[in-house]
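Ops channel
N.P.: pipeline sanity check, posting one input/output pair.
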């Protein structure tokens, strides 16, 4: 009986018992089945978890106990070889190890085993490299996030009621619109209402009375149109200004009423203080 057969004979009963235990107890039993001298204690734990996961998967897929033992031996030996191996070489390494370890697998078992090894090793390849190589060339970036706190609110007595704040906002908006309309009206009134375009004629042109009257009529008509347009603009602006002023007065009255209501709801501290300071009259 060679060394491999002796290992299988020793491992099969132990692995049979291991599958009946919880994970923590199973890892403890596994730690006694091999010599784990490849790594320090911290990385050794990860090595043992790697062997445990692959071994329990092999047993759960109905492999014979000798094949489960071979899987455990292969998983233990392949783990140190993961250092410095890229993804392509890693797949080749896993495929070769699977063929050498378990040549008699059915196509379905080989497919499931290959998929499990791929997901286990490839998805955690960088983590395996960090453990195997001692994380010597792994850079860990730490990000510091600054916590932005909202501004401290004013005391309740110094705050602004929601309705009052909305009134202030509306008053500011209406006041801004009113200022713009009044500025347009002022510019309209200060500007020229009518501009007459006079056609230039040379001294050689002879204008009779009829031509002169025609020019005058055209000038008067153009002036009337410009005046009417200017008056329409002024009327429209005045109407808008009146509406905005009425709206502004209503908002200001509403805010004053809101302030009065709020003041009546708040307790009078001075009266309370005086009430506390006033001694009670004793009955004789």
């Amino acid at each position: 009986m060679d060394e491999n057969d002796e290992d299988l004979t020793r491992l099969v009963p132990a692995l049979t018992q291991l599958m009946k235990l919880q994970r923590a107890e199973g890892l403890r039993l596994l730690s006694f089945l091999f010599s784990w001298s490849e790594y320090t204690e911290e990385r050794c734990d990860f090595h043992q978890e790697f062997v445990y996961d692959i071994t329990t998967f092999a047993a759960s897929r109905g492999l014979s106990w000798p094949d489960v033992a071979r899987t455990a031996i292969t998983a233990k030996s392949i783990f140190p070889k993961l250092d410095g191996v890229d993804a392509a070489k890693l797949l080749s390494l896993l495929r070769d190890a699977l063929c050498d370890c378990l040549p008699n697998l059915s196509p379905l078992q080989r497919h499931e085993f290959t998929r499990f090894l791929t997901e286990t090793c490839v998805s955690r390849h960088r983590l395996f490299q960090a453990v195997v190589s001692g994380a010597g060339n792994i850079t860990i970036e730490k990000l510091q996030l600054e916590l932005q706190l909202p501004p401290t609110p004013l005391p309740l007595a110094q705050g602004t009621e929601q309705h009052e704040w909305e009134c202030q906002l509306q008053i500011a908006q209406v006041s801004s619109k009113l200022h713009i309309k009044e500025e347009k009206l002022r510019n309209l009134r200060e500007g020229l209402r009518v501009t007459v375009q006079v056609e230039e004629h040379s001294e050689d042109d002879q204008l009779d009375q009829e031509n002169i009257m025609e020019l005058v009529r055209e000038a008067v008509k153009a002036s009337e149109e410009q005046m009417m347009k200017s008056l329409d603009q002024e009327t429209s602006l005045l109407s808008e200004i009146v509406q905005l002023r009425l709206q502004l007065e209503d908002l200001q009255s509403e805010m004053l009423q809101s302030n009065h209501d709020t003041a009546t709801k708040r307790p009078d501290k001075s009266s309370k203080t005086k009430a506390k300071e006033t001694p009670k009259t004793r009955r004789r």
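N.P.: looks fine end to end. DSSP finds ten helices and no strands in the chain.
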